[in-house]
Amino acid sequence: MDVHWFYCVLVFHKLVSVWSRELLLYSLNDGNKIPAVALGTSLGHLADGTRVLPVNHSLAQAVQWALEDGYRHIDTASLYKVEDEVGLGIRNYVRDSHVDRRDIYVTTKLWNDAHERNEVRPALRKSLEELGLEYVDLYLMHYPMAYKKDGNISRTDYVETWKGLENVKEANLTKSIGVSNFNLSQMQRLWERSRIKPAVLQIEVNPTITQNELVNWCNDHEVVVMAYSPFGAILGRKKDAPPPRADDPILMQVAEKYNKTVPQVLLRYLLERKLVAIPRSTNKDRIKQNIDLMDFSLTSEEVEELSSFNSNYRLRTPAKWYPHPHFPFEKKNLTSMEIKHIIANSKDD
Asked: Which among 7, 26, 71, 80 is annotated as catalytic?
């Protein structure tokens, strides 16, 4: 075999390997399809809510690595303040690989301070400008809560905001629309009052917060659920978090059975439930590992066993938003003075 032919074979096998990882797609209720694994691009925040920002285009590099490894879905938001980095990573990949932008699925989100119906389109256009794109594949209302630009509570109803999302879909600025961090009653109310039904709900899901009732409602209404924080506190160091941890015997036994890591098992758990998994990482090896999920499956018994860890534990329920009438989560027992102190000392989110 000559060197040229050998090289072509290697390239072919690499392309087959990469493209085979993105074959898992879910159908949306609007006729579009969504890739089942997305790279999350939030870099987190400090204790006071200040967003962590990328240095030396580290996130753009992570996005490019992810696309090279077979990801075809990137999840971001205006809140994260990284849409420019996401766009740079996508452009670099398209330039180097000659893949069409249409083959890359991009999700971004509307922030709480642009909930007036006439604010939605300018907000999305700003995101598109940051991303360097003509459209996104999915635009989500990040939370049901509306705030004014000065940080005070707005009484704008999320149903009114949704009309703005319907408008940008009809203007072809996004292919699909959906919501994030809505609870069951909010989803039911939006469904009943919407002209275009939400195609996606993005919420926190992992074995310690299984969200069965809400996920089942979405399944019944053909709403695809995207799962953020797929590892929960299982891989973290939060002292108040319930079990399990990454060294739990059950998790380790399942991982050993399939010759996988515990994080890969946690991601596969979401895919078995027909959810879109959104792992976050800027580490090249972990990015690659987090998409290597298609060569094994969990049994229904293993899915049930992982679900038995459920304790409805949320990684984060921002107390600064407790006073909002549309706050979607259960509230911790805090005094009004404690909430005021949190609000006064919180920044971005």
From this structure: 80
